[in-house]
Each structure stands twice: as structure tokens, then as C-alpha cells.
Amino acid sequence: MTSTDVRDEAEDSGPSGYAAARLRLLTEGARSGPPRRAALAELTDGWLAGLFTAAAPALRGASLIAVGGYGRGELSPRSDLDLVLLHDGSDPEAVAALADRLWYPVWDLGLALDHSVRTPAEARRTAAEDLKVQLGLLDARHLAGDLGLTAALRTTVLADWRNQAPRRLPELQELCAERGERQGELQYLLEPDLKEARGGLRDATALRAVAASWLADAPREGLDDARRRLLDVRDALHLATGRATDRLALQEQDQVAAELGLLDADTLLRQVYEAARVISYASDVTWREVGRVLRSRSVRPRLRTLARERSDFLRRAVAGDGRALGGGKPVAERSPLAEGVVEQDGEAVLAPAARPERDPVLPLRAAAAAAQAGLPLSLHAVRRLAATVRPLPTPWPAEAREQLVTLLGSGRPTVDVWEALEAEGLISRLLPDWERVRCRPQRNAVHVWTVDRHLIETAVRASEFTRRVSRPDPLLVAALLHDIGKGWPGDHSVAGEIIAQDVAARIGFDRADAAVLAALVRHHLLLVETATRRDLDDPATVALVARAVGTQSTLELLHALTEADALATGPAAWSSWRGSLVADLVRRVSAVLAGDLPEDPRAPAAAAVTAEQERLALESVATGGPVLALRAQTEPPAGDTAEAPEGPEPLGVELLIAVPDQPGVLPAVAGVLAVHRLTVRTAELRALELPGGVEGSVLLLDWRVAAEYGSLPQAARLRADLVRALDGSLDVAGRLAERDAAYPRRRGVVAPPPRVTVDPAASRHATVIEVRAQDAPGLLFRIGRALADAGVRMRSAHVSTLGANAVDAFYVTGPEGDPLPGEEAVAVARKLEETLRG
């Protein structure tokens, strides 16, 4: 059945026929796409026109108009019907009766309706007062009634828009910017709003309005296709949810992907991100052009006045020999930036003498010059480069590599210039491996960017640390490549090492530098993972890092890359606490690389004990029970403090606990904190030998906690509950179970199952068991109880929470203080994993 047949059936059968035809179109038709949207609009047009004709066969001076998305023919399954009943004001009572006979059938079918009844004068007045109304009327489309009335309104509204454009376009730009700030950037969000986020359907509509003003036009290539793809996704989302929603929630993404015939949710997100990137870039270019045009219009009258005054002055100042006095030199329209690159009208453009077809380094030189000058790279320049430039030879000439390093080291302006090159496909031509990470989503709450944008953000951060290293070039290129392996299966660090080696050779690094780059990519997580999950007092930990790094210069580069990577990941990935741990590890590794080894490499170095820790430990021995202290913790903002908000960043509270060494301390403390609804951000546990011949050993726990909500409990109450937990009179497990039963689980992201592994090379003095799991209340209590039930002794623990992920390392031994035999260690890890999965 064709769309015309469906429309005829709907017209013949009235509302019920329309409803049946609409349902058949949405359930039996083709997949989401322009044909189905057009068919749905045509079907709805016919039904509404029939309602209009039946309700007012003889009424003149009235018409029914579709506006907004419906006016454009973009009807998704659950879209509102945006309608205006236009009339000349001659018969208000008849128009009111007509409105009732139009609106009520729509409501009776449960369709969303956005409607108004206006005269042309009222419509113009409302449009002048409300920008959103004016934008909707720009897409007005006649449905029924007096065609002349509709045509006159369209002509008038369009003329008003063009006349008022110099005033209204800045208002529209501000509206778009505010919405983008509020909703975020569509091309990076895991649960984006397809309509409201920056780069979404609202921005695409705004670009149409700019084009209608005749002041500027958006880059057309790819824009219509990007808009179509977002509309297709919205159609599938409406069918999957049965709701008029624009939010692409995680739990609907697989179903939406299936509706569109895509492989999986990641493929869906990548297509959404690519479309959003096209619209965002087109918006940037268009608003920049609008600003240029408006500035030139405001300057032109002043220039004409100055030109007249200067001409009069020259006529009066002509000397006897015919030479003009005080003529002055006209201001140059172009300022040179680099060979073949000039500044013009606030953009970096190609010089008239530039020959891209003879100069393969020109794209990188132009990009580096633009970024260094803090200027955008003009659309015309990028397109000319993409169309005419020759490929670079392999290996690259030295100038090309230097220009790439200059671009990467230019700081924040690098982002916009890089995106301009990427919009025309130049990045993938320069670095073919980039295509695998372009627009690739990262389903990790810690990451705020797609893989490719994260790599650029890391380079921006690394540019702040180039004074800390002796060789900035490998640092910046490693920042660009450190996650390049995420486009390949397996461990991205291992895959990335191979790719980095190849890229380094291709862009002209010698063999030694290529090996350093590959090592940086291979080990870019080594420092932060070791510092936060391993016992730094164990010489085996430091020796392992030293062997992997190899040289002082590589360690220096890796330290800077680690910090840049973490800062570019998101706020949960870096803090002064993590920074201090990494710095401590780097100091120890540096000492080993310099040959400064402990006298007995088999024995761990004694950790420094603060006066407060010693006081708590002695008091714990004296009282025979736990002693604790609470202390508020703050830190300065991470990153560039000049751009950060003033004031310290709250870290929660530091909780110091000293307790005589005994089984079950970890689950007891973790359980009491969970009962009191305290979230554990980081935790350290270690055994402390007391000074001065004091007998007995004490377990020292250093925790950073925050109240889940409300205020922190008093220290005395925490201590009392801890005493009860240790002697068994407080049923922690029962209390937690009761609380879980009282609060049903919320629907949300399905987390991957927990994973427990043994790292046999991490220590010679203990068995290291590492746990990776979804963070949840009571998780640490369950881990500690499972280890206690296994009969192992806890030598130390290193707990960290990254977003929704807990990554914990536990140094355990047998009853006699020796590492667990291999099979026993594996059995303990397997049992712990089963417990956490159960």
C-alpha cells in the first residue's frame, strides 16, 4: 500500500481511519527515514485538511498552517503537531467553532498538539516578541483554507526576518549558546538529547534560519545528511520507547540500533557523534561569518566618513609639485603568519601566492600558524587544502614533523584548528590510524570525551608541561597517540604500542625516539595504576616500574604524560592525592634508576610515621581497642589554577584509625562506614610496628570518606559501632541487608561483572589480589569479609574509586606471613569473585 492509498483511506474513514492508517505506516512500513516522515506528514496533512473542509465548507478568510517541525515535514512517530489557525478577524465566532472542531479530534487520538489562533497582525506581533515563534513561522506550510492568506503571512514574516536579522541573529546565537551550556555537546554525551544539545536538531534549525536571513549561509556539504541521521535516530527512539522523547538513554540504545539496522549501540552513538560534529562545525563557521558580516556593516558607514574627510584633506593639501602631503599608508588587509598563510578578517587563510598542490606541508604549517596565533582556520582554506594538497612522503620531512609538534603544543586553540582539519578529512589522510578512534564513544563514567577528543585534550594538557621535560616533541606526540589502540581489539596499551612505533617512523622520528614513543604509549597507565593500587614501600613495586621505564628521561616524559592524560580524562581521574602518590613513585623509581638501592632489596623500606599516627597507635595499644580521628580535607583545584575557581576543592574527611592487629579489621571498618552511609573515596591499610620496644603491632587505616547525604556522624559514635563490629555484637551484614531491602534497585546501566585477579610479580613479600568492580554501598565490607573467611592476613590495602568503578589491591599473606602458594592464591581470588558476583 502506497502512502497515497493510506492517505485516501484515512480521509474516507475519518479519525479512526487516520489512526489505523498511521499505525500501519509506523509498524509495517520501511525503517526510519525521510520517506516515512514524508508519508506520515502527507497522511496527517490529508486528515487535517479533511477536518477543516468538513468543519467550515463555506468559511472564507481562514487557513490552517503547519509550522515548526511539522511545517518542514519532519514528523517523527511521537512529534507534536504544530498548527496555526490563521484568520482575517471578520468572523471570530465561526473561527472559534472551527478551532474546536479541529483541535478536539487531535486530542481524542492522544496526539500532542501545539496550537494557536491568530490574525496575520497578531502572528507578526507575537513573532516580533518571541524569537521561537518567529523561527517556527519561517517554516510555515499551507494545509487548508485560504491559500492567499497563508502566502501573504509567509511573505511578510520572511521580510520581517530579513529586515530584523542584524538585531535578531545575535539573539539567536546567544540562545543557541545558552542551550549548549545547559545541555552539553551532543558529540560527547553518553545519553545525549538529540534536539537540545549543542550540535543537535535545534542547531540545525537555527542554521536554516540564518540562511533565510541572507546575511550568511552554513557550509552545505554533509549538513543535510547529518540532520537526516539525527531525525532517523529520533524516529527509532520514539518507536522504541513509545514516548515523545529526544533523550537517547543508555537502556534504549541497543533497541534503537536494531531498529535502524545497525550493529550495536556503539555504532549508533558513533553515527550520532559524527552527525553532531558536522552540525557543530557548521554552526561555528556560520556564526563566525555572521559576526564578520555584522561587524563590516557597522564599520562601513564610519569608513565612508573617514574616506570623505581624507579626500577633502588631500585636495586641500596638494603642493605645487603635485605631491600629496600627509597621505599616509593604507592599512594592509592581510598580515603574514607563515609561508603561504596570512591573517585576514580574523581568520587564518591561504596567501594568494600559496600553491597547496606543490607544498604538501602546507596543511600542517597553516594549522600550526593558526593555532599559534589563536585564530580559526578559514573554511575556504581547509577545503582548498583538502581538494588540492599532495600526500606527504614517508617518512615525513623534518618540517612536517615540527609543524605537527607546534600545532599540538599550541594549547587550547589546537582544539578548534584540529576540528577544522578533521571536518574535511585531512587528519585521517595525515594519520590513517586516526579513523579507528574518530568519534569512538567511551562507556566509562570517568571519561567525559570521545576517544579522539580525549587525545587532543591530552595534548592540550601536555602543552602545559613542556617546560618540565627535556624533549617536548615525544611528550606531545605520545599525548596524541596514547589511546590510539582503543580502535583495535585487545589491550589498547599493547595495540597502541605497535601503532605508535609505526606512526613515529612514518612521521620521521629516528629509531631511538620511536622506541621511546612506543614505550610511553605502552606504559601510559603504569605510574597512576601502580601508585594507587600497589604498596610503594615494597621494593619489588618500584623495581618493576624501573625495569619497564628504563631511563630517567623516559620516566620524566611518562610522569608528564600521566598527569596530562588524567587531567584530560575528567574530574574524577586526578586529585592532589593521586598526584602526590605518583610523584612519590617517580621519586623512588628515579632513585633506583640512579643506582640508589636499599641495603637489603628483599626488605620493604619503613614508611614514615607521622606524630599523629604514632599517637593513635600508642593509644590503641594502651586501650586495647580502636582509636580514630576525623579531619576535614581540602585541596586546590587540579590543572591550571589561573583558570580554576577560587577556593579549595572539598575532598571529604580524612578518617585515621588505629586498631590492634587482629583478624577482620577491614570488613569491620568498611561495614561500619557503610552502615553510616559514608562513601569511601580512597583507603590505605598497613601494619605498623611500634617504636621504643612497645610490644604488639597495630593496623593503621587512612581513609578519605564523604557522607552519602546529610552530615557526618560523630567520631564517638563511629568508634562505639566499630568496637561492636569487632567483638561481633553489631550485625553489620544484617543491617546492610535490611537497608538494601528497604530501597528497591533502580533501573540503570547494566555494569560488567566484577573481576578478581592475582598479580604474581607485584611483590616478593605478599600475594597481591586486585579487584575491579562496580562501586556500591558495602562493596569493601563484602571484599574484606570474604578475605577474612579465606583465612588470609591483610598486610596492606590500597583502595580507589574512579567514577562508578572501584579498583582495589590487597596485599595478603598466609598465617605465617608468607605469600600464598600459586594455586591457593588463585583459589582465594576465584572464591572472592564468586562472592561478589553472587
UniProtKB/TrEMBL annotation:
- What PROSITE patterns would the database entry show? ACT, HD
TM region positions: none
> Which residue range or ranges hold the ACT domain?
654-737, 768-838
Q: How is its activity regulated?
A: Uridylyltransferase (UTase) activity is inhibited by glutamine, while glutamine activates uridylyl-removing (UR) activity.
Q: What is this protein called?
A: Bifunctional uridylyltransferase/uridylyl-removing enzyme
Reaction(s) catalysed by this chain, per the record, are:
[protein-PII]-uridylyl-L-tyrosine + H2O = [protein-PII]-L-tyrosine + UMP + H(+); [protein-PII]-L-tyrosine + UTP = [protein-PII]-uridylyl-L-tyrosine + diphosphate
Q: Which cofactor does it need?
A: Mg(2+)
